[in-house]
Amino acid sequence: MTLILNEIHTLDGFNRTFMVAAADRRLSNPDGSHYATHKKLLKIPYLKGAISYFGLAAIKRHGKKDLLISDFLSAFIRNNTSCTDLNSFSANLKGALSNIVTRNILRQCASGFHICGYNKNGIPDFWFFSNCALAQNYCYKDFQDEYNNPSSHFLGRDAKSFGWNGSDKNSISNHIRTYRNGDLRVHEAAWKALDNIYLELIKFPDFVMLTKEQEYKEYVKFKCKIIAYYYKNWAKKQVIAPPIDVLLMTSKGYID
Question: What does the pLDDT look like over 43-91, one tens digit per residue?
Fold first, then answer.
């Protein structure tokens, strides 16, 4: 299992925005035991964005070394620099995956992808596709034997509820939109609770508010580490574990 998340922050409509993407590196076997440690979050430099994945992490090949999804994605990113938008990138990715992930594999496990980036107008977006649905008990269900079509979950769906009219950068209100997948139970339980602790602390004069994007990036990493700590010490299976990777993106590129 894993924990991946994306956040889109609108600070002055679409005139000032940033995105944060985060993921742990724990790859687990179906029984929850440790399989390997690899990155699940990769840059897409030509889209000023990132891609991460949950569920299926490796494909077993007869007589060959397992193909890691992270290795496949690294090669795919290098070979698709002609993509100029998230739509074409996502569509190409789905097509490429269909050549290596069999229907039989998809019938047995969840598999999904988070794809974020900036369009030619400097506006952030988030795309998603998978082969499954999420049940009320945080377990994935209804495994399909093929991936559904990639779609924009932010500009194509959620941004409208924040006032986005499709053209005016000032039309959208200031919000934080979060997308997450993987083992969501502890994220649901801990993320908001940690935010509430911080909000209580900054009521005191000797605590300061987060004012810079880089500070928020470190704050996200801190919260992910806390979640990983819970799994290390008190979970029966450590399905989320460090290192934690976090990327901070603006319309101008990545910020360290």
Answer: 999 999 999 999 999 998 888 899 999 999 999 999 999 999 999 999 9
Residue-number span of the structural domain to which 11 is assigned: 3-254
**Residue 5 and residue 22: Cα distance in Å, rounded?**
5
CATH number, domain with residue 130: 3.60.20.10
Nearest-angstrom CA–CA distance, 182 and 68: 17
Strand 58-61 vs strand 49-55: parallel, antiparallel, or unpaired? unpaired
Cα–Cα dist 247/256, whole Å? 8
pTM of the full structure: 0.96
Domain count for the chain, please give it: 1
The full DSSP string for 203-256 is TSTTS----SHHHHHHHHHHHHHHHHHHHHHH-SS--S-S-EEEEEEETTEE--
